[in-house]
Hints:
Strand content: 15-25%
Order of helices and strands: HEEEEHEHHH
Largest sheet: 3 strands, antiparallel
Number of helices: 5
Amino acid sequence: xxSLSDATKVHVAKCLSCPAQGNLGRRYECIVCGDSVTYCGxxxxxxxxxxxxxxxxxxxxxxxxxxxxxxLYFLGEEMVNGEAPQSYKCAFCDELGFxxxxxxxxxxxxxxxxxxxxxxxxxxxxxxxxxx
Length: 132
């Protein structure tokens, strides 16, 4: 849920997986853990989003862009309520391209028997309620 200020200001961050730090351009932060779990775009795309005792593999990650990366990915698109468009990946089957609402539905329909599904659904319900 990138805000307009995130997309337009320089944010100093440190990737948990590689030495990259400073203005990462495009980075991913955990919706639950916040900026204490941050990965540069390259590390996230390479699957280096390592779970820990606090950060679980099913925690949704949000993409945050600096101005240059926002324009590269979304040139011509308008932000809705100050938010950059988000696309989430299912932690259980790695299917891509869900909105938070779609991911919630997907987990209910396809993965409701998974042991971690209730925890992920709780997170998604909270995310979707915050949007209202």
